[in-house]
Amino acid sequence: MAEAVRLAPELTGPTWIFAREQTAGRARRGRTWVQPSGNFSATLVWRPNDGIQTRALRSFVAALALREAFVAATGNEAGLALKWPNDVLLNGGKVAGILLESVGDGLAIGFGVNLLAAPPLHVVQKGAVPPVSLLSETGQTIEPLDFLSLLAAAFARLETQFTTYGFEPIRAAWLQHAARLGEVIIARTATDETVGTFQTVDEQGMLVLKAADGTHRIAAADVFFEQGR
Known about the structure:
Strand content: 25-35%
Distance between the termini: 30 Å
CATH class of the largest domain: Alpha Beta
Low-confidence stretches: none
Mean pLDDT: 92
Number of strands: 11
Order of helices and strands: HEEHHEEEEHHHEEEEE
CATH topology of the largest domain: BirA Bifunctional Protein, domain 2
Oligomer: single chain
Number of helices: 6
């Protein structure tokens, strides 16, 4: 992501930045992102021709692209699920995360994938979904650059769908693979916590929870599951 910021002013079109090693990874809300050797780290940076609100919906495009890349890499879609707002789960554990940031007048989407190893539990936020790796859950391996080829192709196809037909087909596809849909989950912000049934994701990408005091539409939060995996 830092390299995307540095290069963005010079780029004339969509560009993937691939890192063989990260020494200063970061996650949402400024948290540290631990990326063991052999895992996947890459950022896509470009200038979408739409507004800020629409750009944020690319997290759903990115999540679907990651899922497609996993299926293409393994030949198996069992155990894969998408956790709002920006994680991919495998057999209930977090195998990949996504980070969106504005870069000048452009957008950078960072992808971190546990291909070979997962971070140790002590570095994970308390109560968060435990990390897993593709290797630990499936016994399969893929070279990071080969995974990039699969991810880039999937993202390009889904981005074309998004710009052509809008968010609704992306939203519908994402919901088909949503983790804990119809179940009670916890959404926490820096100042608030909402416990409710995960009903849907709305047309603005907001999480919709049915709580004891009514329906809540949440634009940004960390989501926790009551019983872990």
